[in-house]
């Protein structure tokens, strides 16, 4: 498993826990359902940029990006 | 701008989690790195919190921040690192990401108002950590129905395919139940979590089990997992953690 892939999995695992679990019934300001959706959208952007970086790194190293 | 005094109303308190009274704040970078992580005691427990700018964390500002992937990753990791540093020293009841109080009084009234349930939760979590276990299976072979030539052969292939799928689903649900039973017996508590799609798990193999366990004796738990791994070469098992006990927050404080 490549380093960047490991990074993705860990972040997703983390996001599932910090967003959906823990003490929910607390806080004057909390995330709304719409906010949580936004986080997952933002995360997809982040992860696709990680994948792009990985491809670029492979291209720079003379390899062919995996499809 | 740098000469302007900081208005009291411009900051709130970001709450990471709750620890027993006397617990010290970890010396970790906060979600807003310009402020320190501190412990605030009330009601026999202590909040692990840090000041945050309401320009960043107010409801009206949050959607914009959340859409910023770099901000999101940095802030989620800061939240988790503060909790993990606290967990290395003491029991922690973790809060959800972006739990913010407008002022210290509101934060203190949460602690005093939930003093009993927080204290009991901390007693239950003392000396225990949350571990995650996932099991993956190799991808299914493609259906033969699409390749059949005659109509009758096609129907037979479809029926066979249907039977095979039902058997597979039944065998997977038996596997999941068996895993959960065996892992639970090596833990103080356990919950079955939703399965993740390959895009979320980051693996091509299909996930057939996802569980979280509250564990006092990590060696015993890991031995139980190793025994399962040896017996079930058809499964790929993944252990994660230790995590703050996100999945073992009392129902009165969580969504149940």
Please describe the biggest sheet of chain A, giving its number of strands, its sense, and whether it closes into a barrel: none
Rg over alpha carbons of chain B:
24 Å
Order of helices and strands of chain A: HH
**Largest β-sheet summary of chain B:** 5 strands, antiparallel
Based on secondary structure, the structural category of chain B is: alpha+beta
Q: Pairing-aware structural class of the strands and helices of chain A? A: mainly alpha
Q: Look at the structure and give the mean pLDDT of chain A.
A: 69
CATH architecture of the largest domain in chain B: 2-Layer Sandwich
Helical residues, percent of chain A: 55-70%
Number of helices of chain A: 2
Overall, the morphology of chain B is elongated
Describe this entry's structure for a reader.
The complex is a heterodimer of chains A (67) and B (256). Chain A has one domain. Chain A is elongated. By secondary structure, chain A is an all-alpha fold. Chain A contains two helices and no strands. Chain B starts with 10 loop residues before the first strand and ends in a 13-residue tail after the last strand. The model of chain B has no long low-confidence stretch (mean pLDDT 89). Chain B has eight helices and nine strands. Chain B has helices at 54-57, 62-66, 69-87, 104-113, 115-125, 151-184, 198-201, 218-231, and strands at 11-20, 37-42, 45-53, 93-94, 100-101, 129-137, 189-192, 206-215, 235-243. At the A-B interface, α1 and α2 of A face β1, α2, α3, β4 and β5 of B.
SSE topology sketch:
The complex is a heterodimer of chains A (about 70) and B (about 260).
Chain A lengths: L2 H18 L12 H28 L7
Helix pairs in contact in A: 1-2
Chain B lengths: L10 E10 L16 E6 L2 E9 H4 L4 H5 L2 H19 L5 E2 L5 E2 L2 H10 L1 H11 L3 E9 L13 H34 L4 E4 L5 H4 L4 E10 L2 H14 L3 E9 L13
Antiparallel strand pairs in B: 1-3, 1-4, 1-5, 2-3, 6-8, 6-9, 7-8
Describe what is shown at a glance.
With 67 residues, chain A is mainly alpha-helical. Chain A has helices spanning 3-20, 33-60. Chain B has two domains: 10-125, no CATH class; 129-248, Alpha-Beta Plaits (2-Layer Sandwich), CATH 3.30.70.
């Amino acid at each position: 498993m490549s380093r960047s892939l490991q990074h993705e999995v860990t972040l997703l695992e983390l996001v599932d826990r910090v967003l959906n679990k823990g003490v929910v019934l607390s806080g004057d300001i909390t995330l709304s359902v719409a906010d949580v959706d936004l986080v997952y959208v933002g995360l997809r952007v982040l992860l696709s940029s990680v994948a792009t970086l990985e491809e670029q790194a492979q291209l720079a190293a003379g390899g062919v990006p995996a499809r | 701008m740098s000469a302007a005094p900081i208005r009291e109303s411009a900051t709130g308190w970001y709450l990471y989690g709750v620890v027993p009274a006397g617990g010290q704040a970890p010396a970790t970078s906060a979600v807003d790195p310009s402020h320190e992580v501190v412990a605030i005691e009330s009601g026999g427990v202590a909040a692990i919190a840090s000041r945050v700018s309401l320009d960043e964390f107010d409801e009206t500002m949050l959607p914009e921040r959340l859409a910023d992937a770099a901000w999101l990753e940095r802030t989620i990791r800061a939240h988790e690192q503060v909790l993990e540093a606290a967990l290395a020293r003491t029991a922690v009841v973790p809060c959800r990401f972006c739990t913010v109080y407008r002022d210290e009084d509101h934060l203190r009234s949460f602690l005093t108002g939930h003093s009993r349930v927080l204290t009991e939760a901390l007693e239950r979590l003392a000396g225990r950590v949350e571990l995650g276990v996932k099991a993956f299976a190799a991808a299914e072979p493609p259906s033969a129905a699409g390749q059949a030539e005659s109509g009758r052969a096609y129907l037979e292939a479809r029926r066979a395919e249907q039977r095979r799928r039902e058997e597979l689903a039944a065998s997977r649900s038996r596997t999941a139940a068996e895993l959960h039973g065996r892992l639970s017996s090596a833990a103080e508590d356990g919950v079955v979590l939703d399965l993740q799609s390959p895009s979320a798990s980051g693996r091509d193999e299909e996930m057939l089990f996802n569980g979280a366990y509250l564990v006092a004796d990590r060696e015993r738990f890991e031995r139980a997992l190793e025994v399962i791994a040896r017996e079930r070469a058809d499964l790929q098992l993944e252990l994660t953690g230790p995590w703050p006990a996100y999945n073992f927050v009392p129902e009165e404080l969580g969504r149940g």
